[in-house]
Hints:
Elements: H1 16-20, E1 38-40, E2 43-45, E3 50-51, H2 66-77, E4 82-89, H3 109-121, E5 125-131, E6 160-161, E7 175-176, H4 179-198, E8 203-206, H5 213-216
Parallel strand pairs: 3-4, 4-5, 5-8, 6-7
Antiparallel strand pairs: 1-2
Helix pairs in contact: 2-3
Keywords: Flavoprotein, FMN, NADP, Oxidoreductase
InterPro entries: Aldolase_TIM, OxRdtase_FMN_N, YqjM-like
Cofactor: FMN
Amino acid sequence: MGLSTTDWLLKPVQSVNRAWTPEFSLREVAMSLLLEPYTLRQLTLRNRIAVSPMCQYSSVDGLANDWHLVHLGSRAVGGAGLVISEAMAVTPDGRITPEDLGLWNDEQIEPLQRITRFINAQGAVAGIQLAHAGRKASTWRPWLGKHGSVPLNEGGWTPVGPSAIAFDPQHTAPVQLSETQIKELIEAFVESARRALTAGFKVVEIHAAHGYLLHQFL
Length: 218
């Protein structure tokens, strides 16, 4: 009987100390607490190493793929206690770029479950960052060497924000959110958080920095 494309990757859990420290134990160094378990409410991490969100700009229609499995899964194999996904948009127009991950519909749950299963199998905890880019949405992937908004005829969209003030002259001016739209966005964050739990994430982080939507209200 054959194995699936990922079954053979699920075990064994890799041991940082056994695999990478043949001559001495990392627990003997001055920063030994770094490798001690840490309990956050009812959740215990195997150590205090957390991988922060890193945007990959490698998705189609907000769906996770093999790239994201390797990117996040390898950090779990490497021994991190907590692995947090890149910013996932709660609505399509909340993406930083058209290639961002998202969690605005149920179809996006299953590809993420494959990733969280792998992370869990390696002894790490899967976390997720939920976000909305606001007026900084609909931009080019950074390695393309372009600045500003992606045109509508090239897959971009008109961003939204607290006011109709563009981020800079190269960015499209956003549409000012109405009170009703603000309430809808709050609900979008709630629904995305519910999907995140269904997808197997145990830590949910709300992105409210770097000039994105929630930060724009401050």
